[in-house]
Amino acid sequence: MLPFKLIYSEKYFLPIGEHVFRADKYRLIRERLLREGVAEASDFLEPQLASEDDLLLVHSPFYVNKLMEGGLSAREELQMEIPYSPQVVEAFLLHTGGSILAAERALQDGVCMNLGGGFHHAFPDHGEGFCMMNDFAVAIRVMQKRGKIRRAMTVDCDVHQGNGTAAIFGGAGQKAGTLPSSGGGLEVVSASNGPAKDVFTISLHQEHNYPFVKPASSIDVNLPDGCGDEEYLAWLDNALSSGLRQFEPELICYVAGADPFCEDQLGGLNLTVAGLKQRDELVFRAARARGIPIMTTYAGGYANRVEDTVAIHCNTVIAAAEVCRAETTAER
Ligand SMILES: [Zn+2]
Predict the structure, then answer these.
(1) Cα of 172 to ligand 1 centre, how many Å?
(2) Can you give the pTM of this predicted structure?
(3) 329 C-alpha to center of ligand 1: Å?
């Protein structure tokens, strides 16, 4: 049995047809976790649909209405890059409900993983880049509204910048210089943290990739094409330490994209499967060492072979379990 819960529904499948975004990955991840004995059936929790009121904490009434009534224009559908249908809306509502449940359980158990979500390209008033609703931004706002937390941090390690998240929470970016690491030219933009800032956003991504306009996160690490494991991990370590020095979150929301992988069709970084697992361990250890509850969402993953995407996502579960178990051993 895992030391935390996994949130999953077979209705996470998005009916979007032949697509580079393999919406069957969620089912394949669950099957692999069970087959390999990483998880058992009792580790899984079934989410409920997010409500319209939940969505309205992040998304504009006009946009939510268009989603519910099927009123998206052809241009808006094109920008989302997935076909609109009421079934797709329902699946996104379920992923969002999954992130709300994951946030709740993370606050209760210390760790929780939504085996879905991570739709970081969804803005308040529109969707883009396969993302219709920003599930984890909604989850953070729901936790704040319920009085469970005041401050949260997002740590987005998808290969694509978290533009929707940055737009929602505001980066108020100011150039804060370059973090002292290998290779120069990497730009870190750090927020001027006004007293009202309640969500701190970190994004590590490939600079020369979608989205071409990148609204400022609190910390943006613009990585060069072909960046490998070692360099990536050094930057992540720097960004996490820097972020956690500036800001004390009561919840970390980790966006564990599988697309920094070297064989990803939509990514241009050069991480290995092992390097991605080290990345996960680094994030979980940073949270756990400080006693900060952490929830995870999956975001992208478009490896040439879907099995690689599935293996990388499963490793995130394994990494979290190993970090938690190592603490228990150390306590004995
Ligand atoms: Zn991505």
Answers:
(1) 23
(2) 0.93
(3) 35
